[in-house]
Amino acid sequence: METLALYESHDYMPGHSQIYREWLKANPEPRLEWDMWFAMSLIGMTVGIVGFMMHETVEVITHNKWTRAFYHIQFMRPSAAGSGIPTLISFLNGTNIPQIFTLDVLMVKFVSCCFAVASGLPVGPEGPMIHLGSLVGAGISQFQSDLLNYKLPYFERFRNPESSTNCASSGSIINVETSMELITHTCRRGMFIQMHHMTWTNSTFSEGAISLIGAASFFGGVSRLTISLTVIMMEVTNEIEFLLPMMSTVMMAKCIGDFFTRPFDHALIKQRCIPFLSQEPSISLADHTKVDLDLFSAADIMTRDPVVIPVVDSVSHYARFLVENKHGGFPVITKPPEGLSESLFFGVITR
């Protein structure tokens, strides 16, 4: 009441004074209120200018926001852009993608993810956390960094492609549970049965249950995840009684999605022009018939006159050689020794 008493009413009507009545007697005929029309026009024009300036200011701020947001990604480390899942999938598939498991990628990915989530954008840390987990796994297994110029004498036997791939895969799997705060294998035996009998007394499905199953099936149709998605949804919601219907809907969504199109991450891989080998590789012939690649061998694509590279030559010749030839690997030869007419094969070098 004390706060309400601080306010007074405002009188919108003009004062009915003696001066006002004399003015009415002097002006009995209605007159054109051109000044009112001019004032309204001026108000409308000014409001339009203010609105235009606000719109342009928002556009400038938004442009600067996105410019500053992708600056440290586009110029400092382009490989840290996006969620990193398509890149990780391609790496685990066998494609050699440079500069994806470095310390600067880890820092840029961490900072950009924090900024993106804290800015209020409709994004989450789950995708980048998978890439961050693989970065940590690959980094710890190597114990070396070109950015900081150090190489510790630990885990030297892990410094090979196989161990690096295994550690990166393990780190990405662990970070899935970290990002979603999952509690796999932390519930006591029989606890789910006790919770079921104490909580659910009616067997009728609710709207929330149908929404949960629908969300899982939609996610499964987009990502084509099956077992991992079911486990994630079970751990997030703690609804073990929906395991069977959720598995059925997720599997059905995956089958229908595979029939019509490729997964979302695979579409991003194709957009980035990254080679990807499917689970059952095949090729399409001129008559649109598919042939299994297991029917072919390396001899089917080899040539009798390969493009070779000498073991010793000038840098300019090597640079011109790489520009003229788009192969991924080249046989290395040396000059024929005395008494021989053919060159010696040293090995194979990649680009």
From TrEMBL:
Membrane-spanning intervals of the chain: 36-55
GO molecular function: chloride channel activity
Annotated CBS domain residues: 302-351
Any one annotated GO CC term: membrane
Protein family membership: Belongs to the chloride channel (TC 2.A.49) family.
PROSITE patterns registered for this protein in UniProt: CBS
Source taxon at top rank: Eukaryota
PANTHER family named among the record's database cross-references: CHLORIDE CHANNEL PROTEIN (PTHR11689:SF89), CHLORIDE CHANNEL PROTEIN CLC FAMILY MEMBER (PTHR11689)
Gene3D superfamilies: Clc chloride channel
Subcellular location: Membrane
One Pfam short name: Voltage_CLC
Cell cycle among keywords: no
Topological category with respect to the lipid bilayer: Multi-pass membrane protein
SUPFAM superfamilies hit by this protein: CBS-domain pair (SSF54631), Clc chloride channel (SSF81340)
The protein's name: Chloride channel protein
Keywords tagged on the record: CBS domain, Chloride, Ion transport, Membrane, Repeat, Transmembrane, Transmembrane helix, Transport
